[in-house]
């Protein structure tokens, strides 16, 4: 069983790549609550009624490595809701001369999983396109905050 892995190389310094990786709202989703850049921090990801998960940042070594542990997960399109629970998401940041390689691995996301095709396609987009765009242009393509949530937040703050 092979874990899902993808990689790309950019002409940016490893510290720039690290800042982008830890700016999860900038490349994965604006629907993130909690800290994404500090070890021990927990954040919640939410995408409509399709996917939600709780993730802990387990390593954040500037310019080198970021790892997450998935504590809880829900997909509305699979039977086994434990497929992501206990898996590790890993970003290795490797200096290669004037370039930096980003190697993404979702340890435990394997082809035998019901969600593998959907999840690997989604990670492919968010890592290889959105994260790369955030690193190279300063603007990623994250899921946008649900407009209903924005309106509810504004109403609760009296905006």
Automatic annotation (TrEMBL):
The protein's superkingdom reads: Bacteria
All residue ranges annotated as the Activator of Hsp90 ATPase homologue 1/2-like C-terminal domain in the record:
14-125
Q: Which residues form the signal peptide?
A: none
Pfam families (alphabetical): AHSA1
Q: InterPro entries given for it?
A: ASHA1/2-like_C, START-like_dom_sf
Member of which family? Belongs to the AHA1 family.
Protein name, please?
Answer: Activator of Hsp90 ATPase-like protein
Organism name: Actinocrispum wychmicini
